[in-house]
Fold these 3 entries.
Entry 1:
Amino acid sequence: MNLREKPFNLNDSDIEWVEKTLSSMSVDDKIRQLFCLVTYTDDEEYCRYIGQTVRPGGFMSRTMPAEACISAVNKMQKYSKIPLLVAANFEAGGNGMIIGGTMLGKPMEVAATDDPEQARRLGEVCGVEGAAVGANWAFAPIIDIDYNWRNPITNTRTFGSDPDRVRKMGVAYVEEIQKHGMAASVKHFPGDGRDERDQHVAISINDMSCEEWDKTYGAAYSACIEAGAKTVMVGHIMHPAYTRYFRPGIADSEIMPATVSREIVTDLLRGKLGFNGLIVTDSTTMAGIATMMPREKMVPLSIAAGCDMFLFTKSLDEDIQYMHKGYEDGIITKTRLDEAVTRILALKASLGLHKKQENGTLVPSLEEAKEVVGQAKFRMWSKECADRAITLVKEEKGVLPITPDRYKRVLFYSLENKTDGATIFNVDESENKRFCKRLRDVGFDVTEFVPSPGFEGMMKPVSEFTDNYDLIIYSASLQTKSNQTVVRIEWANPMGANVPIYSHTIPTVFVSLENPYHLVDVPHIRTMINCYAGSDEVIDSLIEKLMGISPFRGISPIDPFCGKWETHL
């Protein structure tokens, strides 16, 4: 560990602060510094308790209004002796932390432009808007590679399935966001997207050989490390090939997710890739790690394996006790503890947090934030990204463009997540409604499909549809979210009442506002459009393209045909 080298690049004064701070800390102080918590509130007493009593190394903010973000950060920093790392999931824009923040575009939407400049813009939006409310750590970019169309969590959160494109987009994001006082955290090492499981609810495996991994995921991580990425987030993902490479003869039952695997964290990431920055676990509340061993063992083992920070807790006091016990039992050595805390302090010093604390500039003002968050330039960039991303996957000759003159009467089928709203991701349940409204705004007479009761012999005749509708539009808004196992269409009763059975009788257009893999469930659809996101900017651009006002420009960053021959027909 050399604090003068990349990615910390500390000077003598910075190193002096790190060493002086470390030497002043008790074992309890150091152990508490390992924790990165989560907050949803700016409640004064809660912030006081976290800052003064718990004394973590940092916290992640869930999405709140800008005023609440600044208030929470201000209070947390005020009550903390050592300045805090303040993180958020800046994956698609400032909206990852701030309600009203700019969503430039989901990573797959950005990738569909095939232009790394759009990823650089994403980094600028996240960096500028995040810093405006006091954030200094982005849990992004995601450089997972979406090889498996069945994966329920990577999907549009990735830059696609082309390793070269993922690498270029990841590097552009890292380089830009770190210009704005924000540490990037490339994730989820050693790489998601191969498996079809979600680490929130099950273990996940990257099944690549060492040679394959080096050329794909490894190349992306190496490039981001070379670009100066300050941190890496380790996922609850097994990598059997590299585990066996570093530990020949290991039993299958001993292969562990990267979070608690010395072979993957220390030997591969630190050793082979030469990463000198801070390593943080993914959320430790996920079943992907919780099912592998008792929590009492897992908590300290993550640090012993080489991670420097422990993300979230199940039970705050209990997890701190587990970490203490792991230290007392020798699972975490004094050397390993001091090394982890040194990297935490070095990251803070590299961001100038100690200097900002001293001069009172850790938290910007609300007035400053209002001038930055959601600014006109960023909104314009969001519109441009949408215009360049929307992809015409398949087209039936003669159907497009659609206008009220050609197709006045539209039957609108809405397909969306079945959710109770209890999700940590920003699942927008109004996307289809907003698309439907925009169709009406431009002059279409839109009828929303409602299934009718009836089984064989009692269903509506085909003539009832051909006599009343000129065009059918399917709008799918099935978004990835935690604790799910598939992102697939669930058809309505009775007997799949909303399946596209009239596509050979009535002109039909299928639009996916989110998941780009729906052709696997509707292979007979002949006009298919992928949008990758359902923001207002995307929907406005979609309307223009459907009506022939602007051309389709997107280049698919994945295989929308899911490797199946019949989806091409």
Note: Residues 379-568 form a domain with the Rossmann fold fold (CATH 3.40.50.1700).
Entry 2:
Amino acid sequence: MRSPKIQSKPVNSDGVTGILKRIIAENGREHAWGYAAAIACLVIIALSTAYTAWIMKSIINEAFANRRADLVGVICLSIFIAFVLRGFASYGQAVILSKIGNNIVARYQQRAYSHLMKLSLGFFNQSRSAHIVAQVGQNISGIRDVMNLTITSTVRDLLTFVALLGVMILQDPLLSIAVFITAPPLLYALRYVSKRLRTATRDAVNVNSHVAGAMQETMQGIAIVKAFTMEGELEAKVSKLVRTAEQRANRIARLSERTAPLTETFAGFVVASVLAYAAYRSIYQNIPPGGFFSFVTALLLAYDPARRLARLQVQMERAVVNARMIYELLDMQPHQRDATDAKPLVVTDARIEFRNVSFAYGDDEVLNSVSFVADGGKTTALVGPSGAGKSTIITLIPRFYDPKAGEILIDGQDIAHVTKQSLREQLAYVSQQPYLFEGSIRDNIRYGRPDATDADVEHAARLAYAHDFIVAQPQGYDTPVGENGVTLSGGQRQRLSIARALVRNAPILLLDEATSALDTESEAAVQKALDEAMTGRTVVVIAHRLSTVVRADKIVVMQQGRVVEEGNHDTLAKRIDGLYARLNNLQRPAASDIY
């Protein structure tokens, strides 16, 4: 089914800063105490690391040069304590940040799922399911990574680096200045890499979603694949996608790892220069080595946090791309919201009326000023050739879509001004293609009414003539149905779908070719059940079989988006030049479909 265009609300386009502000605003307060504890641990890590560099001067000068035996024990004990504190602090911050990160992922998964449930049917008809799953699965971790990178980099790495820089300046200010004069070219190169990585990461996510989509489609249509010997063609298609994904991943790896030769080259140059300068001063100026060893220790210890800080922008760009793609989904508009004056639907007779309803998918008009009445407690059948607009009418009643013009009323209430929840609670729906969810047979029937008892479930199954085949299953009503009921036949799945509609016990029943998947014997049995279920209910049915048409109280004949005839079977069949009569005559020789 075609769908109207769905517009999305643009995500904050301020780059890393804008996304970072939004993530912190949404998650900072929720985990304030946890982040405070993690920050305390990171401060301990930073200070203990700086301490090990600072104490080197005392070790070299006092223990080795001056041979102060009385200080050796104190110095060694302090170093041991520093390492113990750093070990426990590292463990603490890792566990705390992991728990917070896992909670963030879980919360955003729930939020994304809840948001998807609020989007209109048009969004799902336009979007590939695999792309949506990939967008949620691959990108939510980006929000967690942004928060963790922000905390670990700004506290642990930056504080450690600043503390070690302080040690370096205390030991040798001139060398410290010389080290940082050479840093700007490195920062510029890293910024260039991060910009290119941003585009590469988004491309990789999109390609991976296509790979997942192709594999998902193959699994879902495996019977067709094998029947039409499509294995070779699909293998070639997937292989091409996989190679493209591999190339994108390799490009990301090349871009990400370019920081390694840049930082290593820079570090090698700095360390070699410092060693040469220190050796010169020790040889020709007879300066004690303690300060130098402390400086070099601080320099070497500062290398890891400096390297991580240098890679921060690159890593942050990747995380922000993922986070931005999640927000594109969460900001998707419009939700099919209730009107500001929406009230709960009050059903008395369950009379449905279409008044001059028009509808279009984009510029393609499907319904043009359609008007008819489905009387309360009676069955109205929609008949017509393919593309006449019958399925569109069925989707407009539960407000899967809203009409472009006209009104749809239930007991005189415009459904555009009632809440969707109250509207859909009064409807039961059986689609042409039955869909079952993961779980047991009992669970799938009970989805029609969550508070239904086991007795209600079994009663609905009996009405749908499903009870006998259910009890014949290995675990009866508790038998798992497999993915979309793969363990059941098409007719069995349809009867479970009908049972799900019957257990809802709603005053309005919508049937979209509900018996199309059944064989003749099953159709006859289910039709008897439907006849009983239709009693006292308003039924709108898309009718393609004579058995449904002849029982309908009213038949609405449609062609090219318009109502061209109305009446019952006997009246319409006598109109020699009528569309219904022609369709009825076409059916008679085969005694099957009207069209």
Note: The chain has 22 helices and ten strands.
Entry 3:
Amino acid sequence: MDKFDRKFWRRLWALTKPYWVSDERRKALTLLAVLLVLGGGTIGLGVWATYIVRNLMTALSSKHAAAFYRDLFMFLAYVVAVVPVFAYYPYLQGKLGIAWREWLTRRFLDKSFSGRAFYRINLHGKVDNPDQRVADDINSFTFRTAGFVLDGMNSLISALSYFAVLWFISRELALVMLAYVAVGTWVTVAIGRRLVRINFDQERYQADFRFGLVHVRDNAESIAMYGGEQHETRQLMRRFASVVGNFNLLIFWQRNLALFTNAYSNLPMVLPYLLLAGAYFAGKIQFGEMSQASIAFGTLQSSLSIVVNQFQQIADYTAVVNRLALFWEECSEPEEPEHANLPTVEIETAPEVAAEDLTLMTPDYDRTLIRELSFDLPPEQSLLISGSSGAGKTSLMRAIAGLWSSGSGRIIRPELEDVMFLPQRPYMTLGSLRDQLCYPAVDASEEDLRRVLKAVNLEGLPERVGGLDAERDWQSVLSLGEQQRLAFARLLLRSPRYAFLDEATSSLDENNEELLYRRLQESPITFASVGHRSTLRKYHQQVLELDGESGWRMIPNQDYLAAAAG
């Protein structure tokens, strides 16, 4: 077993074990036990059916009518017994699969949101299409794992049962079967091993192509404004070319595998008759025994050939396990592991906001954005952060939020529940208008919601969209300016101790911008803003200017002082 195999089995165990030792293990183990009992019962009935068929064929060949009709009645009894088992088996297997999927999805979501791992893996780009891994791969993993385990257990029981049937008819035939399956399994693995990696790549290329289509859908208006249809077509076809190229490789190896497996699966139809024909013509066995041997041989071959018969599914499954495990491992990685020996920005919790000897660098530590910055932002004060594009304004905001650690020095701030950040493009969550205002977790009455909407000049919005509980695609329904005002309504409703605004009014006219900042000044919120507009200066007491060459200066805002004096 090579290194890849050991890694796969280790990953499979890490993904599988937690559910079966969790609080839901009793329900899961009960379902598994019932399924195994049903599977064993089905196999037992199947063995009984071989004897019924054996007697039927013997009665036919000897023209014994009474025995024939008796055995035919027995076969009908077998059908009545086996029908409900066949109906309930997939039903209970589905119940087990969906319960496991629900538990594992919750676990993956908790893990991806823990420690902002979702942000980190998206930033690093090591895990492609995490949405597909949660939505599709978990579903495939849980149902296929349950299916493979049950199939394996049933195949083992079936193999032992039918091997015993075959052994009592012809020991030679039973031994030939074992050798036949062993050789077939070895050849299948040798031919199909290449499919594991190809299936992994196919899932990745498919997901990349789908992501490109979703990206076009989400940015349709911008693409139309730019006239970028031809560029987008080229980008999508470039991604699709990877899908096509890898698919051609996939079907090439699937063809090679199919050439062998089809021959392997069809040969057992005649092999028992070929090996037993001499004994039958010599009168040593009855015709019914040949029929029974043929059924037992085919069933035993199917039971022992799980790898041969399901190699394509196993290859797909291996890719799913590796994709899920990689996602989990990346969520568990500490931040910036590749720079573990380099200094990072420290964050200290305190009632006020300040920075001490703060140096911010790009994530690769290649360029210094801000050098040895020190400032403080006492309560009921306001700060404007200005500077040219690329000077590090947004990076400073990210560092305060704990999202940017490349650099050195110390940031002092309250706990994050006492701080709120407003980006240039507000986040519109899925849900109702009430959900937008209360995001992420604010309890407010309808009176409070309407009050803050009026404060940001969106008083008529509920009636326009169908009420506070109306659900819409808010990014499409609301203009960017309305979204920014809605974000301010969230801020006023939550009323944190500190707020950091990153170009949060860039899409507003001056009148609405003034309205929002006046509301902010009337509140107890201490705030800092990033912005280029000269109109912002009059709302802030201090200005932090970044020169774009890692330098900075802190100056009192004369516009604010003059406005206050006036």
Note: The chain has a mean pLDDT of 84.
